[in-house]
Design goal:
single chain; alpha+beta; 2 domains; 6-stranded mixed beta barrel; 3-stranded antiparallel β-sheet; 2 helices; elongated; Peptidase_aspartic_dom_sf; peptidase activity; Asp_endopeptidase; protease
Length: 230
């Protein structure tokens, strides 16, 4: 019986170092797993910062219009009747020449030739303005090139003289937005389906006159043509 007891105690004594070794290895593996998790989190944070930096670089390279952090005070909007005087192409009219317009990514514009309000996409990523049309046809009038076009939601055709020496169908149309009235040169883009936005205004329109806050929409009131009938 003494021999049996001695044998049992010997086996228990031999297993103690093995158990301790397993526990040590388990603790080491757990520490390594925690370290890998921390490295993964750090890598993800670095990737996020890299994407943000790349987006900022692309914005600078495209010459985007500065984004306004706070609304800028806009001059009082005068009745549009004061703006309906004959305006020469290229001339800009504003009620306050020292204040820039604050625009969102989408604004209401009034096109004189259509006598209608349209939603315009304000896009600092494109250079020129465009107008999506359903049909377009060139013709000659008094020795000059003209164009007749229709919009998807307007069956009545409108006519305008083409810009001279233009490679594409380009027309200068009077645009009114808030306190601004300006002739804008549009490229007529014919598409088979109605677009989300018929009008796109690019950097040629925005330069020196507006700040863009892409987080906002419809910052400028609709132009109301309340003309005296007398």
């Amino acid at each position: 019986m003494l021999q049996a007891c001695t044998f049992t105690n010997s086996r228990e004594s031999d297993s103690s170092p093995t158990q301790a070794l397993l526990e040590a290895q388990s603790a080491t593996l757990e520490n390594q797993a925690q370290t890998l998790a921390m490295l993964s989190d750090n890598q993800q944070a670095l990737l996020t910062e890299l994407r943000v930096t790349q987006a900022q670089i692309r914005e600078l390279q495209t010459g985007s219009t500065p984004v306004a952090s706070e609304p800028e005070t806009v001059g009082e909007v005068k009745p549009v009747a004061e703006l309906l005087a004959q305006t020469e192409p290229g001339r800009k009219i504003r009620t306050n020449s020292n204040a820039k317009l604050l625009l969102g990514r989408v604004e209401w514009v009034w096109l004189d030739i259509l006598s209608a309000h349209l939603k315009a996409r304000i896009d600092t990523g494109v250079a020129n303005a465009s107008l999506v049309v359903a049909t377009v046809q060139q013709f000659e009038r008094n020795g000059e090139s003209w164009v007749r076009f229709t919009l998807h939601d307007q069956a009545e055709p409108v006519e305008a003289p083409l810009k001279k020496n233009a490679r594409r169908n380009r027309v200068a149309l009077m645009v009114r937005m808030g306190s601004l009235a300006e002739y804008v040169e549009f490229a007529l883009e014919q598409e088979s389906e109605a677009p989300t936005y018929t009008v796109t205004l690019g950097r040629d329109f925005l330069q020196d006159i507006a700040l863009v806050d892409v987080s906002r929409k419809f910052t400028q009131p609709k132009v109301e043509l309340t003309l005296d009938q007398n």
